[in-house]
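ingest -> validate -> predict -> emit
validate: passed (alphabet ok, no gaps, 248 aa)
predict: started
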Amino acid sequence: MHSFVAILPLLSGCVFAPGADAPASQPLDLAPAAQAFELAQPGQTLALLDDPALWLPFDPACPALILGDGGVERWQGDCAMADGGMVFGSLEHFVGADHRWVAGNGLQVVDAVGATILYLDGAVELLSAGELASIGASFTACGFERPCALGAATVDLALSVFPYSGYPSRYDLAVEGAVATAQLEPTAVSGTVSIDLEVCGIEPSSGTLLVHGDAPWGLDFDGASACDACAATAFEGLPVGPGCADWL
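emit:
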């Protein structure tokens, strides 16, 4: 089993929320909350667990695939590709019956003009028990769902998805952890939401999301009854009106 080293601690003092004395009548800017929720969803994390041959550069020799003991694949970089690009670092990948993990060790793919198009440093591990998938993720990455031109995203998350066979259309998601990008300062996120894209494709059908800081936001979703991309919003525990954003 791969061991994780947390790279982004849960922070209680760094938030995007306005100061505690901000009048409730001011327009609510929940775009950062939506960005944090997007990063906390399992899409990018699960994409990393796919067969690396699907997302690594198509080159017969670089990176080199080395089959290790116990079914572990190692993709070794520090080599040049035929198109003039380079691969640095390495990647390890394992798939078992109810256990999968991937670990990037400074894996970086650079194209022929020197631009980074893929980066992964850190690890993801998935354990499944029936329809419950438990996921641990601690990594910095770009080039998957997030283009490297925007900078890498860093996540340190514990996720559970149920039922796993319902993902990505209909499932319950529990999340606890923290996320950050160049545009989003470190933000702690926790909560449990239900997502059913047939019922509502723009917000969770139900559930509560907390964005933690000195003065936390609370977001209660009701997409099953009012699919309008707006959540009942509380600031420091006090209702401050609907908060609307691009949630899904």
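Residues 1-25 have pLDDT under 50 and may be disordered.
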